[in-house]
Design brief:
The structure is a single chain. By secondary structure, this protein is mainly alpha-helical. It has one domain (about 1-430). The protein is built from 18 helices and no strands. About 50% of the residues are buried.
Length: about 425
């Protein structure tokens, strides 16, 4: 597998890529392993119902995060990767994207307070939602798109580790009884704001950036570039992350807690292979497609065995270890999460295929509209399945709906690429 990755990288870039991968792995360790140190403690202190409330609030916040992000982490990464040696262009891009995100943050704040006024169920947990939505400030400030496009992710790895260490310490200090559960999300949000502010300062200093207020036309151009990806991210969220939100509406806080426990365990293991590798490879593959379609596809063909083999092994590990892992991490009150973990054990492979066919191939071939249409159909299927299955089977139905929807999206992407006569057989053949 290492030989395949070395072969797809331009000469001299293997060391930089290795550093980025190592940095991203450490970031993911910080993002998921360090908080998991607190899970056995928190789950036993606050119980499934209050854990469900925490996760339901985060599912609300996901939509505000999508609004503030606005697809820039994909659309602008491509621009940075293609123009990284043009300092004046990067400086203008920095000011335009930061301004756009701050405008979106203001819009998100207006929507938040409007919800608090008109929705009594939202207002009932307003302190919790305020603590959770503070996270959006960090989203607006964090220049991930810049670091990713520059292939310079190691600069933020230690900051992320520091931030998650603060969360871990803060939870043990502040969450002492069941009614302290709000502190969990408040600490998470505050830490992200601190880390994002420091990361922004590092970016300004490292790339010698200066902020000059951009014209409205240039900001509008960034919105246009990110709009398709913003719509696609909404669709992705509707079919891949709406389960908690709909469980909170149509079921109970207990069901939300059980489902969240199982899905987080799946995410913990999947993220090490898929997310870190995807973020490090996307700008490299984008450069490859910029040179020629065949070179870009050649890179994707070499990525396939690494992603699919790694995620398949993760799926097997999840299925086999589910009872022990749930018992150790969450305790006996979360035993029902075992069935959720086992249903979701197939997700690592499906999601890696989604990324391989969608982000790495369709988006780099500028098939933005078909990608949006496929994710739109996926969101309709996902919402429909969630509505029906959650009513009948609660958290088990949510898990089944997620797997079925992801399978439909992967099949649709595969079908579109075959229709466009892209070398799909070579793309997914593991013994190439």
């Amino acid at each position: 597998m290492r030989g395949r990755l070395v072969a797809l990288l331009p000469q001299g870039q293997w060391r930089k890529f290795s550093i980025n991968i190592a940095s991203l792995f450490s970031v993911q360790v910080a993002n998921y392993l360090l908080p998991l140190l607190t899970v056995p403690y928190v789950s036993r202190v606050i119980g499934p119902e209050r854990m469900g409330l925490l996760n339901f609030s985060m599912s609300y916040n996901n939509y505000f995060v999508l609004l503030v992000s606005f697809g820039f982490d994909v659309a602008i990464v491509r621009l940075v990767a293609a123009n990284r040696d043009d300092h004046a262009y990067i400086n203008r891009l920095f000011a335009q994207v930061l301004s756009a995100k701050l405008l979106l943050l203001a819009l998100a704040a207006c929507i938040f307070f409007a919800l608090a006024i008109v929705d009594s169920s939202f207002r009932a947990y307003l302190p919790l939602h305020m603590a959770t939505c503070l996270y959006c400030v960090g989203v607006a400030l964090f220049p991930q798109w810049l670091f990713q496009g520059m292939e310079d992710l190691s600069r933020i790895a230690m900051l992320s580790l520091l931030g998650k260490s603060i969360i871990t310490l803060g939870v043990f200090v502040l969450v002492r009884q069941a009614d302290d559960f709000i502190y969990q999300n408040l600490i998470m949000s505050s830490s992200h704001v601190i880390v994002s502010t420091i990361a922004l300062g590092i970016a300004v200093k490292r790339y010698k950036l200066t902020y000059q207020v951009p014209g409205w036309q240039s900001i509008r151009q960034r919105f246009r570039e990110g709009f398709t990806f913003f719509l696609s991210s909404i669709n992705n969220t509707l079919y891949s992350s709406s389960h908690v939100f709909m469980l909170g509406i149509f079921s109970t806080s207990y069901a939300v807690g059980v489902f969240s426990a199982g899905s987080r365990l799946e995410l913990l293991l999947r993220v090490f292979v898929s997310m870190a590798l995807n973020q490090a490879l996307f700008p490299i593959v984008a450069n490859g497609f910029g040179q020629s379609q065949e070179r870009g596809l050649g890179m994707v063909r070499r990525i396939a065995p690494v992603l699919l083999t790694g995620t398949a092994l993760i799926g097997v590990l999840l299925f086999v270890s589910a009872p022990l892992a749930v018992s150790l991490l969450y305790g006996n009150r979360f035993n029902e999460a075992v069935v959720v973990v086992r249903i979701l054990a197939v997700l690592p492979v499906l999601l890696s295929m989604n990324s391989l066919l969608g982000m790495h191939t369709m988006l780099n071939l500028h098939m933005d509209r078909p990608y949006f249409f496929i994710t739109l159909v996926g969101s309709v299927i996902g919402l429909s399945l969630n509505y029906k299955l959650i009513h009948q089977y609660s958290y088990v139905g949510a898990a089944i709906a997620w797997v079925c929807t992801e399978a439909c999206v992967v099949i649709a992407m595969l079908g579109w690429l075959i229709y466009r006569r892209i070398a799909i057989v070579k793309l997914i053949r593991l013994n190439e």
